[in-house]
Amino acid sequence: KIDSRALPELPRPRPYREIWVYSARFEGVHLRGGSIARGGLRWSDRKEDFRTEVLGLMKAQNVKNTMIVPVGAKGGFVLKAPPSEGGREAYLAEGVRCYKSFINGLLDITDNLDDDVIVPPQDVVRRDEDDPYLVVAADKGTATFSDIANAVAAEHGHWLGDAFASGGSVGYDHKGMGITARGAWEAVKRHFRELGKDIQKEPFTVVGIGDMSGDVFGNGMLLSRHTRLKAAFNHLHIFLDPNPDEKASWRERRRLFRMPGSTWMDYDAGLISKGGGVFTRTAKTIPLSREVREWLGVEATELTPNALIRELLRSDAELLWNGGIGTYVKASTETHADVGDLSNNSLRVDAKDLRCKVVGEGGNLGMTQLARVEFARRGGCCNADFIDNSAGVDTSDHEVNIKILLNQAQRAGQLDAERRKALLEEMTDEVAAQVLRNTYLQTQAISLMARFSSELLGSMKHFIDVLEDSGALDRELEFLPDDDELDARAKRGEGLCRPELAVLLSYSKITLYQQLLQSNVPEDAWLSAEAVNYFPTPIREGYADLVPNHRLKREIIATQVTNSLVNRMGASFVLRIQEDTGASAGDIARAYSIAREVFDARDFWARVERLDNRVDSRVQLAAMVEMWSLLRHATRWLLNLPGRRLDIGQMVARLAPGIAELEGTVR
User: Fold this and answer.
1) Backbone torsion region of residue 86, taken as left when φ is above 0, otherwise alpha when ψ lies between -120 and 50, otherwise beta
2) Cα–Cα separations (whole angstroms), residue 434 to 42, 179, 397
């Protein structure tokens, strides 16, 4: 186990801790961004540089995890001597053996808990502080391994039980819930809504990366019955349907999704429009029909599979839906070597050549960050993968935190194993609703920040400089523009684009979360209710008395308060108020909470949000801006009160009746 930050030779970002597990059969590494960190373990095929792969994923996980309790972590292992005989079954069996050995290695040198007493690992020289929080999750190649990991954890008597690896047989099945795709779809719906289109009621064209047996691609392509999937590709096939029938193609995609192990070759050819078909990527060339040529705007009558895929990526479909693995779009200023995905060099296109209106990033790393910026600055609509596909990790977060509490209930004799399993299943829909709400609010926050982006560019520039000076942000690593570029944009009347704002939203949450954890906000009598509100209704009604003893109660409260404040008030709000008033982050959170309750902002926001697709989204944003301005002034006024009286309950009781009376008078 290595204190990575003590090694200046390591590439940035340097993890908080990393564990290496070495064997003659495999090597594995687990990287954590902090003491309370969460992320998946993948079965990597990058034998020469798998740590580089895992490090990049940990960095992405760190910004993805800002809406949940832990910071980012990631792990990966590679086989060093895969079996040469026995086919796929032998290969999978060896992978499972090495995965179990990898998990054993991680747990062998990890502290455990007996109630609240730390139990250090036996026969291990321990030079670090108490560090019992180790969890894993499914990832590429390990999607079905959660029960295997939990069985190993059970052998070790690990304190988290089956919360060690989320998504097992007693947990939330992400593919069954379709949660990652549904979360990304919230982002896609918002993009189109702001373009004036309701894709749940109006037809729209799509080019996709993936196939219907895949979780993110398959679920995503069933979320609207008006999806007109014109083309898709995966590692085996290219699917072309230049003029798809909405109803028939949706039913056929659903059939393939329900067929175990389906490929595009299983698609009913009789349902494909004239000029379409399914082609293998091993073919020397693929013939192009008149219909396909007219759609793509090419004259060639045939193309190699790779050339055809490049044309599909650059086609004028309204949505490019990434549900696969690989990086397919780079910035025109980047080389293929900069991307670090050698296997897709022959397919990759430049963002400046994309003709789609919207990119939905259900999969990770489909575009480079500079590609997103280039696409967005040319008028395209996108966020970032860590925003679009965060619903999966958010679901895992809920599962783990719910299981920690239910484990308390079991130890207290309030719950048996059968009822625990039934309760988890009963809460599935409500957990999904909570997770999708989080994605909705994060994408709304980016839209609100984008509304101010050009006029408040100076404020954002200052925010970036402060984060950078404090060491919280590495501007170069996050591909944020330097001061000269920001000055040039200011002169042109331009601001930051959505992918850049997504990064700042995440870092704002990272910073505020740490500040709140170091304050007494988690002990505040009013705000501590946020820990109870985090959980679904059956827990709030039956086990609320156990929440105060939840091991991550402080972290849950800090996360809830952070999300509430930053989602509604933007990335630079807390810093601006700190500099204007000298108040601490904790006092700002209290003042904001008072203002929010006094002006009944939640009801106002709900009424505005119910107007989705009924009024112009610009009208909704303008209304949001009015409430933002009111809360900003009220928060500052409260912080400037003599003696700074910030007891939330008392101040709400004192001020709310007068505001309500005033509102009634105005009406």
Assistant:
1) left
2) 27, 11, 12
Confidence band for 667, pLDDT divided at 50, 70 and 90: low
Reduced to 3 states (helix: H, G, I; strand: E, B; else coil), residue 22 is: strand
According to DSSP, the residues that pair with 431 across neighbouring strands are none
Q: Which residues pair with 233 in a beta bridge?
A: 209, 238
74 given a catalytic annotation:
yes
Q: Contact at 8 Å (CB) between 60 and 72?
A: yes
Three-state SS at 119: strand
Q: Is the dihedral of CA 416, 417, 421, 427 positive or negative?
A: positive
Q: Specify the 3-state DSSP secondary structure of 616.
A: coil
Decide: 577 and 459 in contact? Cβ < 8 Å.
no
Distance CA 106, CA 121 (A): 11
DSSP label at 396? H
617-639 and 573-581 helices, crossing angle to 10°:
30
Instruction: Name the pTM for this structure.
Output: 0.91
Q: What is the 3-state secondary structure (H, E, C) of 605-661?
A: HHHHHCCCCCCCHHHHHHHHHHHHHHHHHHHHHHHCCCCCCCCHHHHHHHHHHHHHH
Q: Determine the residue type at 104.
A: N
- In this structure, the number of other CB atoms found within 10 A of the CB of residue 400 comes to 23
Which is catalytic among the residues 47, 59, 64, 74?
A: 74
The burial class, CB within 10 Å (0-12 / 13-18 / 19+), for 402 is: buried
Higher pLDDT, 495 or 57: 495
Antiparallel, parallel or unpaired: β 17-22 and 26-32: antiparallel
pLDDT band at 509 (very low <50, low <70, confident <90, very high): very high
Residues 336 and 360: beta-carbon distance below 8 Å: no
